[in-house]
Amino acid sequence: MNRIFSDLPTTVFEVMSGLARDTGAINLGQGFPDDPGPEDVRETAARAVLTGYNQYPPMMGLPELRQAIAKHYKHWHNVDYDPQSEVMVTSGATEALAGALFALIEPGDEVVLFEPMYDAYLPLVLRAGGIPKFVTLKPPAFGLDRQSLENAFSDKTKAVVFNNPLNPTATVFSDADLSLLAEFCIKHQAYAISDEVWEHIVFDGHQHKPLATIPGMRDLTIKIGSAGKIFNLTGWKVGLVCASEKVMKVIGKAHQFLTFTTAPNLQVAVAYGLGKDDSYFENLRSNLARSRDKLTDGLLQCGFKVLPSQGTYFLNVDIAPLGETDDVEFCMRMVKEYGVAAIPVSAFYANGSVRNIVRFCFAKNDATLDAALERLAKVSP
């Protein structure tokens, strides 16, 4: 067996979700919403199954979806992509990440990874033959600094994987952070695989700024989005990929031998959804912000120290003031004794170097959050 995968332990996400099922705990760990997603988008997918084409769609994606992606990003971010040569559809953003890494990385190439990080990054880099170079982001700001980038980048740097807004920290990188990262990418001619799946889920006046819009980064950036996150339909697994024609040609070949294509009815529905009025995307943010505030206020009343959440479905608490020193142990005790599942943020670090932060998902209905808070009130001293 390939040791990269055979040696991987069962992920904490699977462990916590399994415990939630077995014990009847409220699952605020796994990042999926209670909301079923917009009805008109789901109806469009259903009609496309019954009346549309259900054979292989084009490998790069349905033309109508690729055109919708280009139009959507022009409207929201004022960035131009040619739908024929610079836009691709994948079976989820994780497949897009894999395709980008397999297209770019050869054995021995170095890849800069910012931790805490989505757990797929490291095994995919290793499977591609890359050598990870970690930049450890520290709470509570989780920002970039010049010295850490100087330590990580070298003449062997081929790519950087960058997630903005950042899961699990729920932070939005500043313009200064983006410019600093761009400076190093341009200096070393390193490609940026920019995981922007949370681009529409930002709060408190924050506006998502794609890395590709920073001067000099247009042709160095592979921008990855997720229809599942945009429409609260995480099971649909439809990824949106934009890159220069030169880069896209190779990523497309990697995609061809991963999943080849994506369900055509979902592509039709996503194309429709991306053209929805701005009010849909504004309401998406405001509704999630309300849920964030509800969980934040409840946790504060329970005695937790809550860190700011600027985007994503998540917020984090610092358990050190509770006298806790091990986030895994704390989460295991919380699900077994108090009936609420959360995720220890140490799982997002390669070596578990930060052990005092716990992540909760607030993309839940009020009844779920109220029930969880009632149980969490018993946790703090």
Description:
InterPro entries: Aminotransferase_I/II_large, Kynurenine-oxoglutarate_AT, PyrdxlP-dep_Trfase, PyrdxlP-dep_Trfase_major, PyrdxlP-dep_Trfase_small. GO terms for molecular function: transaminase activity. This is 8-amino-7-oxononanoate synthase. Its cofactor is pyridoxal 5'-phosphate. With 381 residues, this protein is an alpha/beta fold. It folds into 2 domains: 3-30 and 279-376, Aspartate Aminotransferase, domain 1 (Alpha-Beta Complex); 39-274, Type I PLP-dependent aspartate aminotransferase-like (Major domain) (Aspartate Aminotransferase, domain 2, 3-Layer(aba) Sandwich), CATH 3.40.640. The chain contains 14 helices and 13 strands. The strands form 3 sheets. It has a 7-stranded mixed β-sheet with strand order 2-8-7-6-5-3-4, sandwiched between helices. Helix 8 (175-188) links the parallel strand 5 and strand 6 (191-195). Helix 3 packs antiparallel against helix 11. The longest helix is centred in the last third of the chain and has 25 residues, at 278-302. The protein is globular, with a radius of gyration of 20 Å. The mean pLDDT is 96.
CATH architecture of the largest domain: 3-Layer(aba) Sandwich
| Category from helices, strands and their pairing | alpha/beta
General form = globular
Strand content: 5-15%
CATH class of the largest domain: Alpha Beta
Order of helices and strands: HHEHHEHEHEHEHEEHEHHHEEHEEEH
Radius of gyration: 20 Å
- CATH names the topology of the largest domain as Aspartate Aminotransferase, domain 2
CATH level 4 superfamily of the largest domain: Type I PLP-dependent aspartate aminotransferase-like (Major domain)
Mean pLDDT: 96
